[in-house]
Specification:
With 817 residues, this protein is mostly beta strands. It has a domain of 164 residues. The strands form 13 sheets. Strands 26, 27, 28, 29, 30 and 49 form a six-stranded antiparallel beta sheet that branches. Strands 31, 34, 41, 42, 45 and 48 form a six-stranded antiparallel beta sheet that branches. The chain is globular, with a radius of gyration of 33 Å.
Length: 817
């Protein structure tokens, strides 16, 4: 029997060898037919990532050795100390939510690639962690990592010397959402954001010692890892937490929530607490401030990400629901209203106080671009504050917040980019550190900001001190790719009532030409004899664009000069369709069955919860009841045609109206009663002899806001950029264009409307990556190959890595799979 089995095994081996030879010769034949350079083809690693959601960078004591070019593996001994390597190379750790593994990425390889940790196992071997891991952080001077597992509410420790997990997980008192490491008095510490209950859990961190060289890391059981001394502390949070970010230098954490428009600042250490007071308790870690970024009216939406600016100037909040990035002045702990901070101000163009984005943003990372303009004794350096944002359409966008040019004396020369970014102590001691001290924004009040002359801009944009000169350009917008002109495009699309079509036919009697709204942006049909110059609805075919006025410095023979350079750049202009309707129904009122007739006060009408101030209702408007009267006695007098139950609004409150009958026999002359119109009647409000303008994204602009039970005029309405209605013959000044309504021989009728489309004034600078579900953006300062940007994409199970100075340049990056 043994001899028979041996023969069968022998035959199988022969068949395998023959198949291998056939495959080899076939491969050689293909090489010969294709080209002589087959041996130079680049080998690609097999797919190893499976639902990546987070990435952390290891740049401490542990470094990655060279990666084998054939099987993408590393040696089986423990990883080397960075101090023992001629070219130290850090690496990345990628959390795979679906597979429950932690992948190792050689970020300094060319190209970056996923490392195979054990060649004895088929495929790309990774580190086994807990169930449904969601985040990872590096602890203990880069010697250990901790992975947050939602499935079993635990942390998995990883020895980075051997890339092996610890056998005993660390239990958590809640479900982890995010994880960060920091140092408290030199000891490694970890902070975990938890849900159910909502807590910030702060506990001693993990560190590991390097084992002997003889250890085979592939089978090693880590025994040289220890947690720092101390007890875990739980900080209660006021809402459902969404994200956590830590400023390592300041020892301060920022937390945002899914259900609140608040940001919590939490002092993690006694040194960070200093002389500040805890909102609750009396010792760190504790919450020291709560910043409301929703504004006075608040917001029903929460945030999904928060991040500190690398210089400490700003805190950024990503709010996907409103498609915006909010900017918080960190020293003053106040929200910067991007509408007022940008110049010209964009108040009235949008209701959101942040930076409007093209698509729904899913991930962001702050970026500070530094460019040396002059290296002489009087140095000139430009700093560009902003973010990289990944959106749901698979694109990566650059958001510009603030441009600063700084001239200063640098007798000992300038720092390199690596020193400026990676060595905060060296940067703080250098004269260039003064360039990072910024004034509060906005730079001018609303009245001062109206003056956009060069002299006025220079007066508030250029700040001269004894040691340096700053030239500041607030932008608060997506980066402009090519400064393209904005334009009005398309043809008006009119919806004409039957009565109007009849009037048009009468005006065109004897002519075979049909009148209509076929010409671009004609406000209403006109008779044939009206001169052509009166047919045009606007005086110019292009939008009235804003300009970006950039404050710039120059150095000539040690003298610092300042000037304003202008370029077309309308930060408010978006791709949008607008509809203008004559005596159209106000959209925010609608026809829901919510109206109520007051029981006791004649002519008193209750909104049923609608804010009439925000809806833009005004005295003189017409209220039309759409519900049919009841069957009670005397109710027959309220029956008539569609416009019969139309009344004039004589007084407006926040939630109530006073109405009166209109003169004329074709409308009801009696006020409606509760007996004839029970609860829940339908109604609408239309302006009288006015056009209303509604944008598909901007909505209808009201000049009124609620103050208790009264309607008061908004402050920004006086700036002339907040106008939702206009009469024929007057100018309508919208968010980014100005139109004049002209009268034609055939007058406008109720319901006449037309639509036009506006193209944005600039092309957004973006990079299309084809990603499906961006989960995280990470700025990699330097792991041996300069600064890089990494985008973790769950949808395509990839990590895109690109040099920071090459973002947006063709195919400069690499997809790690």
């Amino acid at each position: 029997m043994a001899r028979a089995e041996s023969a069968e095994q022998h035959n199988m081996l022969v068949r395998m060898k023959n198949a291998k030879k056939i495959a080899m010769w076939a491969g050689l034949g293909l090489c010969a037919l294709a080209s002589a350079g087959c041996e130079e083809q680049v080998r690609s690693s097999p797919q190893g990532l499976n639902g990546p959601v987070a990435l952390a960078v290891v740049d401490g004591q542990v470094c990655l050795p060279s990666v084998d070019g054939e099987d993408f593996s590393i040696a089986s001994r423990p990883l080397p100390r960075c101090e023992d390597m001629a070219n130290p190379r850090g690496f990345g750790l990628v959390v795979n939510e679906i597979s429950g593994k932690l992948g190792v990425v050689a970020l300094a390889s060319d190209p970056p690639r996923l490392v195979n940790l054990d060649t004895r196992v088929p495929g790309v071997t990774q580190i086994e962690v807990g169930t449904r891991p969601v985040d990872v952080t590096v602890s203990g001077q880069g010697t250990a990592a901790l992975v947050a597992n939602q499935g079993d509410r635990s942390l998995t420790g990883v020895d980075l010397w051997t890339l092996r997990p610890l056998s005993e997980p660390i239990a958590l008192p809640g479900t982890p959402l995010a994880l960060e490491s920091f140092e408290d008095a030199g000891a490694p510490t970890v902070a975990a954001l938890l849900a159910q209950p909502n807590l910030l859990w702060v506990a001693p961190g993990l560190s590991c010692e390097r084992p002997a060289d003889a250890v085979d890391r592939r089978d090693h059981e880590p025994v040289d890892c220890t947690r720092a001394s101390g007890e875990a502390v739980e900080v209660a949070l006021p809402g459902q937490p969404a994200d956590l970010n830590i400023d390592q230098e300041a020892g301060m954490a920022a937390v945002v929530y899914r259900d609140r428009a608040d940001l919590s600042l939490i002092a993690l250490t006694d040194e960070a607490l200093g002389d500040q007071s805890c909102l609750e308790g009396d010792a760190a870690p504790c919450e020291v401030a709560r910043i409301d970024w929703g504004g006075e009216e608040g917001s029903i939406w929460g945030a999904n990400q928060v991040a500190f600016d690398p210089t400490g100037a700003f805190i950024y909040v990503l709010e996907s629901a409103e498609r915006q990035v909010l900017v918080i002045d960190r020293p003053n702990r106040t929200l910067i209203d991007a509408r007022q901070a940008s110049e010209p101000a964009t108040v009235g163009a949008t209701e959101i106080g942040g930076i409007a984005l093209v698509r729904q943003p899913l991930a962001m990372v702050p970026v500070l671009e530094r460019r040396v303009l002059n290296e002489g004794p009087t140095a000139l350096v430009a700093h560009r504050y902003g973010l990289q944002v990944a959106s749901d359409n698979g694109s990566l966008y650059r958001v510009d917040v603030l441009d600063v040019e700084c001239a200063f004396e640098a007798p000992q020369g300038l720092l390199s980019d690596a020193e400026f970014r990676g060595d905060p102590e060296l940067r703080d001691a250098h004269p260039e550190a003064r360039c990072l001290e910024l004034p509060a924004l906005p730079l001018a009040s609303a009245e001062e900001a109206a003056d956009l002359s060069d002299s006025a801009l220079l007066a508030r944009r250029v700040i001269t001190a004894e040691t340096h000169t700053l030239a500041i350009t607030p932008i608060f917008a997506l980066r402009d790719a090519n400064s393209a002109q904005g334009r009005l495009v398309g043809r008006a699309s009119c919806e004409q009532p039957e009565a109007l079509r009849e009037a048009m036919s009468q005006a065109a009697a004897g002519s075979q030409i049909t009148l209509g709204c076929g010409s671009p942006l004609i406000d209403q049909p006109v008779a044939l004899e009206v001169p052509d110059d009166l047919r045009n609805y606007i005086d110019a075919p292009r939008a009235d664009l804003l300009e970006l006025a950039r404050a710039q410095l120059s150095v000539e023979e040690g003298q610092v000069n300042a000037e304003i350079q202008r370029q077309v750049f309308d930060v408010r202009l978006r791709n949008e369709r607008w509809t203008l309707t004559y005596e159209g129904a106000l959209p925010a009122v609608g026809s829901a069955e919510r109206g109520l007739i007051a029981r006791e006060t004649p002519g008193h009408f209750l909104s049923g919860g609608i804010d009439y101030c925000g809806a833009g209702v005004e005295v003189g408007d017409r209220l039309r009841i759409l519900s049919s009267p009841g069957d009670g006695a005397g109710c027959a007098g309220f029956a008539g045609d569609e416009g019969f139950l139309t009344y004039e609004i004589t007084a407006v409150g926040a939630t109530s109206l006073t109405i009166a009958p209109l003169a004329g026999a074709d409308t009801a002359q009696s006020l409606p009663t509760r007996e004839c119109f029970d609860q829940g009647l339908r109604y609408e409000v239309r302006p009288d002899a006015q056009w209303i303008a509604v944008g598909e994204q901007s909505g209808f602009a009201s000049v009124w806001e609620r103050d208790g039970e009264s309607c008061v005029r908004k402050d920004e309405a006086d700036l002339g950029r907040l106008q939702g209605r206009v009469a024929s013959g007057q100018v309508w000044e919208g968010p980014y264009l100005t139109l004049r309504i002209r009268e034609g021989e055939v007058g406008a009728r109720e319901g006449l409307s037309y639509t036009f489309r506006v193209d944005r004034a600039f092309s957004v600078a973006g990079l299309s990556l084809g990603t499906a579900l961006p989960a995280e953006l990470v700025l990699i300062d330097d792991v041996g190959v300069g600064s890089q940007l990494a985008l973790v994409d769950t949808g395509t199970s990839t990590v895109y890595v690109v040099p920071l100075d090459r973002v947006g340049v063709g195919s400069a990056g690499t997809f790690v799979r």
